[in-house]
Structures are given as structure tokens and as C-alpha cells.
Sequence to fold (472 residues):
Amino acid sequence: MTASKKVKVRFAPSPTGLLHVGNARTALFNWIFARANGGTFVLRIEDTDTARSKPEFEKDITEGLEWLGLGWDEYYKQSERTDIYREYLEKLLGEGRIYYCFCAKDELEIQRQAMLTQGLAPKYMGTCRNLDKEEVKKRLDRGDEHVLRFRIPETKIEFKDMVRGRISFDTSIMGDVVVARDLDNPLYNFAVVIDDALNEITHVIRGEDHISNTPKQILIINALGFRVPEFGHLPLILNPDRSKLSKRFTDTALRDYKDDGYLAPAMVNFLAFLGWHPKENKDVMNIDEIVKEFDITRAQKGGAVFDIEKLNWLNSSYIKELDLEEFIKATEKYISKGWKLTPAMAETVRGRIEKLSEVKNLVDFYFELPEYDPELLRWRGGPLKDSALHMKETLEFLRSVPEEEFAQAKLEKELLSKLPKESRGDTLWPVRVALSGKSASPGPFEIMGAIGKKESITRIEEAIKKTGMLDI
Ligand code: GLU
Fold:
């Protein structure tokens, strides 16, 4: 790192799809690197692919970053910078470092196949490298289809990657790279160089899939006399079987995680650990702690496995940390309209879920007692009559508790003291089923505390009726 230069990094997504978790990880690493070094974080929308770029994807990107809390200091959009790229394309064209190529796609494909069958790495053969000016003009005037290629000199490109150490490329295996469709339509490898230079980016941190673009970009940087930034290529994100992360295995859009009820701080924590770990053995770290300890040279070289179990575990620990009011607000959109969790209800589920979307099935019975089979009231195959009897005894006790004292702790203490330890299930099972209508639910005392005296009594009376043993 050059001490004199203020750190400036960028996240440069293409808005051709929903923000991918891998790209969110790249954004996060850049953001953390900027914060850790007192630098600037640039968001640059790389929408040179006009056919595939869509405003809704740009919106998805900005919303995703905002959700994660990754604010940007500067914002650029490549489609608004065409004139700038044109100026540099013309410059290199004038210097003969870029040239017009009129080769037809199918011709190129035939050449490619031929090289492959000879066991050679395919590259552009340079057919149009030395066309004379007259010829080029004639073809352009005629309207022949063309692209612009950058002349790759035969040399060795070496750079020190912040993550992977020294990397070198022999450029003789690369063909002249296409940098634009025409003067007004630059392609990724060209626009990225111009912007990184003009935005004064000091460190380019991006996914490993871009590593083969780096030598091309360095050659263009050199041709334009720009300063070469530092590079850091982050490891690929992998499925558990170590193939590249795919939808086959998990959701890949960040939005899906947000919608499913993952909390942003849990997601940030998880993404930060996809390819990086602090010195100490810790799993739960908030963003400030991560920024404090972050050192990109400690990022791993090998692929980072996306472990959904770990994300679920992290998310459940972040959910447990929410206070009840925050929890109620966060779960609102996952439960039916008109339902309003009380703090007591929230308390019964907050520690039981891995993601907020699970809350609905756990709290529904508070609002609508489900239809259930009276058989469910039977404890361990015993007689229904016993269940009815125990519920009736419980009712008597509940009726005796004053409304204002009807709370979980008191009910638990007093009712348990009346029940013989070895046969508590005889009472607690049918009472819990009566209160929830479900085979699994929070415990009976938690439920009674949450729904109150009147509703608890009504539900238990209903259950006794269901057994058909009214005369006990
Ligand atoms: N637009 C490229 C992408 O989305 C950016 C790559 C880079 O960071 O240079 O993959």
C-alpha cells in the first residue's frame, strides 16, 4: 500500500441479475477494507451490457447494500460515461494499440475449434492485426460488422495479489482482446480500466473469477500510462461438494435471504467469514469488531464453503439478541395481518427459530386454535377419561388464580407443586394440547401466560368437551 495515497475501493456489479451472495461478499470486503483504512467506498454500476442490464437489478443491488448497511461514498454508472471511454478508445486507436477487427463470429469459432483439436489453447489469430488504413476505412464505410481489439504485446505480466501472493501470466497465450463493439460501446475490460483510473481506485478487491482479466487490464493500464492499483482476488464460494455455489444447492440471491427472515447483522457476520477469519477462534462478530480486526492478507486462497447450517445458527443467535419489541416488529411481515404478537407470545418463540419466516407456524395457534383430533389429548396411550379428569382439576386451579396474578412463573410454581413429579405428563400433556391444538408447541405455562386467564379456561373447557366426558 502506498502510504501517501488515500485508500479508495469500489464494488462494481453488473445489473444483469439479482444481487448474488458472492457479490454481496465482494461488496462487504471492499466496504470493510475502506472503513478499516479510513478510505472511500465507491459503488459503480457496470451496465455496459445494454441488452442484459435492467433498472430493477440496479435497484436490487442498492437495496441489498442498504439492507446490509453498506453505504457508499460515491456512485457511478458506466452508461453515463460513454463519452469518456470513447475518448480513450480513440486515443489508443490513433496510436495503433487498438485496431478494428472484421472477422465474422462463425469464422472465429471455426478457428477456435481447430486450435482445440490440435490441443492448443484457443486465441485470436490476429487476422485483422495489420489491415491497412484504406482497407479499414473502406470496410467501415461499407458498414461491415466489426469490433475493436487491443493489441496484446508478448510479455510477462506479474503482480502481487494481496490474497494470493505473486502471480504471473505469459501474455503470449492470450489473443488480442476485444475491448469494444464500437467507439460508443466499450466492453468490461476497457471500461473497468478507465474507471478504476479516473475514480482513483487504489485497491481492486474482487472475486477470483476475474483473475484472468487482471493481466489484460494491466496491459491496458500500461498502454494508457495509468497507475496500476493493488489487486486482491477473493476465493470462490462453493457448495458443500466443493462445486461453484449454485441454485441447485441454495438460494444465491441476497434478496431471498432477506425475505426468508435472515437478519442483516447475521448475514454480514456470515459473509465476512466466507474466506476470512480473525486471528482468534471466534464465530460471532459484529461489523465494528470485524472492521477492527480485518486484514485482507489473512483472506484464504482456497474456496470458501457456503455452510447454511452455520448461517442458520448465527441467525438464531442474532434473533435471540433482539429485544422483544424489536422481535415483534421484525416478525410482523411474516404473520397474518391483524395478528399482533404480545411480548409474552414473542418470548415463547424468539429462542426457538432460525429465521423469522418460521414464526408464523409457531404462533398461529395463539390467534386461531387449530382443529385437532381428541385422540391427541391422550397421554401415552392412556384413557381419555384420565386426560379429561386432569384437565378438569387444572381448570379448578386456574379459576382460583386472580386475573392480575395469572402469569407464567406463578402458574408454573403453584400447579407443579400440586402434581406428583413422576406423573406430571398426565396433566401437562393434555393441558398443553388443549391450549395449542398441536402435538408440538411451547410449554403450557408459557402459553397460558401469553393468552391469559379467560382464553386458557375457554380452551381447556373446549378440550374436555371434545373428549365427550362431560360428566366426570
Ligand atoms: N462488473 C464486473 C462483475 O460484476 C466487475 C468485476 C470487477 O470488479 O472488476 O463481475
Notes: Residues 444-467 form the longest helix (24 residues).
